[in-house]
Amino acid sequence: MRAVSVTKSLGGNQVLRGASVEVADGEVVGLIGPNGSGKTTLVNVITGLWRPDSGRVKVDGVEVTGMPPERIARLGVRRTFQVPRLFRRLTALQNAAFPLIAEGAPDAYERAKEVLEELGFRELDAKPEELDLPRRRLIEVARAVAAGPRLLVIDELLAGLTDGECEAYVSSLMGLRRDLGFSVLWVEHVVRWLFRAADRVAVMNEGSVVAEGAPEEVRASPVVSRIYFGA
Ligand SMILES: Nc1ncnc2c1ncn2[C@@H]1O[C@H](COP(=O)(O)OP(=O)(O)OP(=O)(O)O)[C@@H](O)[C@H]1O
Ligand SMILES: [Mg+2]
Hints:
Elements: E1 2-10, E2 13-22, E3 28-32, H1 39-46, E4 54-59, E5 62-63, H2 69-74, E6 77-79, H3 92-102, H4 108-118, H5 133-146, E7 151-155, H6 163-180, E8 183-187, H7 191-197, E9 200-205, E10 208-213, H8 215-220, H9 222-229
Helix pairs in contact: 3-4, 3-5, 4-5
The structure holds adenosine-5'-triphosphate and magnesium ion (MG).
């Protein structure tokens, strides 16, 4: 996936100002940046929720700019939402299986159950309102992974979890990635764990990607210290 020079204004704000990011096959790319820097908006452009004002997005060489989200999803770009969008009346398992059921996959429930269990999720029959935010986010991850993505896009997963839970989530997710072979674009504020999972990290500030590199390079970058700490 490659997003090049994306611009987007929303409600009179120029939210994206030439943002570019690339995820190679099999790669895990972390996307960090302060609140309001445009991470979710960039994800929304990549997944087709927003049409960019300019710039383009390609998936496996196919131009997807301006395609509706369902078509981009069918090309293998599956995402989670910062505020989970689950069906209130469906159970965790039914929510996770939903895209597969919609496609008529005969083994929809088995596949969704396998992924949920792999992620350490046990409350298969719980409704979303009975679960805390991290568990609801995990259902969305399972839903995206069960659909068999080429690119999994995560918009925040680890906030509010203990260190032990972060470790468990990260290692089971990376295990699934290895087994199923998808790549990941991962927006996350809990950078300590993101840096362990990511092959590369891109840093957004004020609507564009201002630094990128291996996690240890980004951690040491003066640009990044300035953005986060004003130093
Ligand atoms: N629909 C909208 N209308 C107007 N402004 C918007 C809209 N959506 C986002 N914005 C503004 O765009 C900027 C970037 O928002 P975005 O949600 O992409 O940031 P973010 O990097 O994901 O932040 P966070 O880390 O808090 O999730 C913010 O200033 C936000 O207020
Ligand atoms: Mg966001």
